[in-house]
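Hello Y.,

Per our agreement to keep a running log of every chain we model this quarter, I'm adding this entry. I've kept the format consistent with earlier entries: sequence first, then predicted structure.
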Amino acid sequence: MSQQVDASRISELGDVVAAALEQARAAGASQAEADASLQRGLTVTVRLGEVETIEYHRDRGLSVTVYFGHAKGSASTADLRPAAVRESVQKAATIARHTAADDCAGLADPDSLAREVPDLDLFHPWSLEPEQAVVLARECEAAGLACDARLRNSEGATVATHNGVRVYGNSHGFLQGYPSTSHSISCALVAQSGDDMQRDYWYSVARRSDALEEAPAIGRHAARRALRRLGARQLPTRRAPVLFAAELARGLFGHFTGAIRGSSQYRRTSFLLGAAGTQVFPPFLQIAERPHLSQGLASSPFDAEGVATRDRELVHSGVLTGYVLGSYSARKLGLRTTGNAGGIHNLLVTAGDDPAHGGSFEQLLARMGEGLYVTELMGPGVNGVTGDYSRGASGFWIDGGAVAFPVHEVTIAGNLREMLRGILAVGSDVDARGAIRTGSVLIDAMTIAGE
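Predicted structure for the entry above:
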């Protein structure tokens, strides 16, 4: 793909950010911060061998925030020319002058800012032309459709590449940036036997294109997943153990991190309100944050406020050690920022060194014996304030530690606080395709509503 965004653009964006900060100072702002980015990408989708879409993405932007004391104003623009930057600063200043002061508003404390910016090996551009992307997408889909005559339709195969650079600066003298890339291949297929139609998908995502799964392998995996769902049936309503597939278990821990965000805590809208220092998970469970993993999909040398990211044991022996905070939420709670303005950075969920609560996926099936293995969830159905959890689900009924038959059109329900405490095991089949890395998760019991 031509005109790659790379590290050479950091200097250019740095000049834009520096100019915005200088103009904010000249306008009388006591503090200011600015964030500039350039993004480019290509996405190609093929369905049944025909090209459906070829999309180029080219985005740029600047966001500026100024403070007059504790009064805050923000503005943004997609135009990085000097006149547009100057106008954005002026608009932010105008807003700040008409905004009520908030004692917790302001930049991150200077001593928390990143003093060194490690190279996390996040930038690996893929010189992918549209014609090459079409070939890969066709190979992916064709390999899947060729697996079985019952694969009669497709929702398509998509190949995407993205590269960008971001620079953040503030009036404390911080000005840093870094480039990053992300590439993916995905495929969704439809299997049919008589009137029974089932769809499923698979995908691969990585910082480096050569770290992606082979396109034909992705198509074949999507095919196997769709075929195994044929003949799905409902279940009678019951209570039983539930095993979440690794790619879905990530969502469970996503609800957990949402509940321990600073904003959820100070607004008192969390089912884990005031839970720091308490037993949230069973004693074997550990959750570590590792922001500096090489090529990690959520790795970052500093957060959205320039605060240094650091390794952290977020959950130790099942006990929540603290919250996920940016500067504002930290001040609201009388705490210090944890370097999580903008989100979490590579959470690693494990059973620690306890073999009794870990093991392979097959070992988790054997431990469950009988229950529901969930491979797809539908609908929102989660109340972050009460923790009530109710979602449509499909997957497989497990009997004697082995798959008995596919299941669909059921609802699984429980309460997240009880579900987290009721985790029996975390598998070694870790899915690393996101900000939360976890294996399959076995929960002692949930209500399964069906027939």
